[in-house]
Design a protein that fits this description.
alpha+beta, 5-stranded mixed sheet, 5-stranded antiparallel sheet, 4 helices
């Protein structure tokens, strides 16, 4: 199993969500977003939603393209099978309400399948909650931002994917109908 490409960026989980989508897939999906609340990562084929337990501390998102994805690590908090179609060959990592955090150019356009796994989701949530519980009215301005920047652990989401097939051809009549 060979690693073909890798991209990592930090993203703020606006409304507790980070979104990964094909550069031309602008419309969101409420059903997939609701599914992410239940299963942490969910998608509709063109979008993936990564659901954090907190809205303010940056998370790390890594997209790795393999010839054959490895098994999720044993210390992952959880994992789920995923697929994403990229007609453009560019995946965008988006922060809801804040805009794109970054983008990855895939080796080629197509449908990629594999799994998502995550780590330190609960630990960052616990830090977030305990920090909010400890803030007093007389705390210096900017103390929360400093606390978020100094979180002792990093919440991580990793998408381990492999190319599966060409993208589904778009019927031009459907676009203009």
């Amino acid at each position: 199993m060979a690693l073909l490409a890798e991209y990592t960026c930090e993203a703020t989980p606006g409304r507790r969500v980070v979104e990964v989508y094909d550069a031309d897939a602008y419309l969101g999906d409420d059903d997939a977003m609701a599914a992410a609340r239940r299963q942490v990562v969910a998608g509709n084929g063109y979008h993936l939603y990564l659901r954090s337990l907190q809205p303010d501390i940056d998370v790390e998102v890594t997209i790795r393209i393999w010839d054959n994805p490895p098994t999720p690590p044993a210390d992952a908090e959880g994992h789920i099978d995923i697929a994403i179609e990229s007609e453009t060959g560019i995946l965008v990592v988006n922060q809801l309400g804040l805009g794109p955090a970054g983008e990855m150019t895939l080796p080629r356009p197509g449908v990629y399948e594999g799994h998502a796994w995550w780590a330190n989701r609960q630990a960052v949530s616990d830090y977030y909650d305990s920090t909010l519980d400890g803030i007093t009215d007389d705390a210096p301005e900017g103390s929360l931002i400093e606390a978020w920047d100094n979180c002792p652990v990093t919440e991580r989401y990793v998408l381990d994917l492999a190319y599966n097939r060409e993208p589904t051809p778009v019927d031009d009549e459907d676009i203009w109908a």
